[in-house]
Amino acid sequence: MEMSGEYRIEASREKVWDGLNDPDILKQAIPGCDEIERLSDTEMTAKVTVKVGPVKASFTGQVTLSDLDPPNSYRISGEGKGGAVGFAKGGANVRLESDGDATILFYEVDATVGGKLAQLGARLIDGTAKKMAGEFFSNFAEAVAGSAETAGEAAPAAAAPSAAAPGAATGPVIDVGTWIGGLVVAAVVLLALIAG
Amino acid sequence: MSETGIGAAVRRVEDKRFLTGRGKYIDDIDQRGQLYAWMLRSPHAHARINGVDTATASQAPGVVAIFTGADMAADEVGGIPCAWQIHNKDGSPMHEPPHPPLAVDKVRHVGDQVAVVIAETKAQARDAAELIAVDYDVLPAAIDMDLALADNASLVHDDVPNNLCFDWEIGDKDATEAAFAKADHVVSIDIVNNRLIPNAMEPRAAIAQYEPSNGNYTLHTTTQNPHVIRLLMGAFVLQIPEHKLRIIAPDVGGGFGSKIFHYAEEAILTWASAKVPQPIKWTAERSESFITDAHGRDHETHAELAMDKGGNFLGLRVSTKANIGAYLSTFGAAVPTYLHGTLMAGVYTTPAIYCEVKTVFTNTVPVDAYRGAGRPECTYLLERLVTKAAREIGMDPVEIRQKNMIQPDQFPYQTPVALEYDVGNYPASLDTALQASDYAGFEKRRAESESNDKRRGIGISTYIEACGIAPSAVAGALGARAGLYESAQVRVHPTGSVTVYTGSHSHGQGHETTFAQLVSESFGIPIEQVEIKHGDTGEVQFGMGTYGSRSIAVGGPAILKACNKIIDKATKIVAHILEASESDIEFKDGKFTVSGTDREMAFAEVSLAAYVPHNYPIEELEPGLDENAFYDPLNFSYPAGCHICEVEIDPETGDVDITNFTAVDDVGRVINPMIVEGQVHGGLAQGIGQALLEGCVYDDSGQLLTGSYMDYTMPRADNLPNLNVGTQSVLGASNPLEVKGVGEVGAIGSPPAVINAILDALAPLGVDDISMPATSAKVWQAIQNA
Fold this sequence. Notes:
The complex is a heterodimer of chains A (196) and B (786). Chain A is α+β, with helices and mostly antiparallel strands and 196 residues long. Chain A is 36% helix and 39% strand. Chain A contains 4 helices and 7 strands; from the N terminus they run βααββββββαα. Chain A has a 7-stranded antiparallel β-sheet. In chain A, α1 packs across α4 and α3 runs antiparallel to α4. Chain A is globular and about 45 Å long. Chain A starts with a strand and ends with a helix. Chain B is built from 20 helices and 28 strands. Chain B has 786 residues and is of the alpha+beta class. Chain B has a 7-stranded mixed β-sheet with strand order 3-5-1-12-9-10-11, sandwiched between helices. In chain B, β26 (640-650) and β27 (655-666) form a beta hairpin. Chain B has 3 domains: 15-21 and 485-631, Aldehyde oxidase/xanthine dehydrogenase, molybdopterin binding domain (Aldehyde Oxidoreductase, domain 4, 2-Layer Sandwich), CATH 3.30.365.10; 31-139 and 204-283, Aldehyde Oxidoreductase, domain 3; 299-470 and 635-785, Aldehyde Oxidoreductase, domain 4 (2-Layer Sandwich), CATH 3.30.365.10. The radius of gyration of chain B is 27 Å and the shape is globular. In chain B, α18 crosses α19 (745-762). Chain A binds chain B through residues 53-54, 83-84, 86-87, 112-120, 122-123, and chain B through 40-41, 43-45, 110, 126, 129-130, 287, 290-291, 699, 701, 703-705, 707-708, 710-711.
């Protein structure tokens, strides 16, 4: 499976940073996410339950970041195992570009699925992955906004795809970018897993 | 003739149980203390196995045992054998890499089995399988045949260079080159015969049982040939002698070739049943069938036809690459060679033919015989090429065929590719089909379609096939590792009813009716007095099973031979009782008569006398009326015929509507015309399915993308027109029943008729090629690209 896209994220860097480091928010944002754990700056694991077409399974995914070129680009690769349902592995090349106060995230994902995932769901993977990526960004934006606005007042959660993202390029941006990549990968690779 | 004898359209006696849900398939059978097996299968097309950790899984609820390839290897279990050995052009034998039942060092296709979990319930076995941790080192997969043959390809079997199983040839290369050298026209074609997935209605299943008190094994399995499984598994894999191994194939829900082969699961279960030791049942899920039942077809061919100025065929040159999958299946090596290359003459007098076949290992499911097996691939190639040749030299496709056909007075006809056709009348089949399809009125229908903005086309296929497999000596000379005769036992009971034990196996063909008709005809008794038994090596003396349209052509004469032995013996008994000379005894309509007198004995009176031998020639004859016969055919039989397909295509959508399909088949003597028609219908559905709908697709990494009915399209009733089916028979000359076989003709003859019709319809738009399956998307795209 191959898919690419871009996402414009508008939010303060601090909010994004907090959100990206808040396992609860990540868990909210990734569709079907049961568990997420950050192991280090370049590694995390996630457990996601997904139903794609006729296949429903719980996947354990590991995501690793490499080729780091802060704050411009990196490669994020992951592998998820869904037991008897098969496996998914793949990666994404993620590139960030500043656009005023916002950030545009470009991603190119390539993923392979195997076993029953491929046998039953190959045709559904592209659509499911796109849908899940969209849900992820939308959830993430909402979650970040919600936690920041604290007291009650759901921020007029705004039009669909608005998520937080890294702005200017200073120190921690690397991490932020990394984690956004991680999220996208988690979403897409796990989607792929699931979709299979 | 008896009312239920040869030629009568008797209703199928087996249908009562099939249609009322009283058939007994393996999944309907349960044994006391039965456990369930689940196969852990590779999700990778190609990977090295570094280790299989079963520790956690072994502790799972209900688990009785888990076995891996290492366990079977430690027991010195043999590999799954191939029953046919092919030799390379240089005379060296083909590569036969090991095929362990459970993978040992590597997995070689998605679905390859890595471990078997045996538990108290199927769900427990399946859940436990998820807990097995297999450490795979994933390797690049060899999928595309050209890439698999390349020097840098990943090797499916480490010791098979370039993944080339064998490089075979047939025919006279020099004579063929000479024919091309003097040709006025050379027409060439590149053709893919699409890979198919068999999809029998009943998935494969088995129950293995071991009796510790006497060391006997019983395996119920969905097979087309129980004795062949007993031989292959007993002698080559598990070293169990015949008398300790019983194979039972009860009602089997369709095979189409895919249940000929000895599959790993049979050996795994049988072996494990002695380890446990309790009966073990395994039933494939449909998803498993897609990735473990041997697939069919999958050829890529370049062919050239040389002609003189008048369109007479001078020579044919064929170069085929055949995908054989990850392992050599039972008949995998025979299909692209002796069931394919030997048919390259078709129904034509082409004097010089050369065919070479490279067979390639890939990381896909093994490829083996599937309804037609080699002959559909050959027929598709020839009939597309001949039609293209007609178009290129501006000749009518009927005329080019008539001009080059073997004529009725040329039989027996020795082809340049080994076979000798015994008898036939190809021009007659063609003429009958032209009339039945109103070929003459086609242009008028085409004009009508065009006035409705539709495109209409008509396509012809004049095919021949070789079935009645096979004369053992010939098959042996060509590499078969078995004889291909058939066996029958005819047991007449004291009151005149008859039980027939046949080595053929019925899994939808209607043998219980057709064979009973033979006996009804022979003995002049009603069909209700005859019972056909098959499918149990503990009951049936021997057999080679059902495939290659061989049951009536080889199994039938065996029954006839045994019936004749019965009549000979009965004649002696009658002569004694009626105090007449044997030569004066006549047998007709179920009665033995002393000719010229009114002294007679009914069939049942004779059988009673045989079992109550009070007045009996006991010094010359044994009591009883029970005879055995083996029949080895003298030649293949050669069904042939003409299929004509007419299509109407909507150029806006690419939708292909088959408006008329005519099949005129020469199947020799027809025993039951209704069953023959049904067999042709089924074959046509599969052939039309291949032409329009079915196609197996792997991605580059070896994942099967068409692994369910969401992505693999089987033909349905609404994809088929009313089929205009008839026979135009010349009686067979190579067996005493004068039959030829009918099981495969529909699937062999029809695909090129469909594609030729589509190309005829689209030719005015500039479309000159389309590949199978010609889906509406593909047809629409071809129109856009033209």
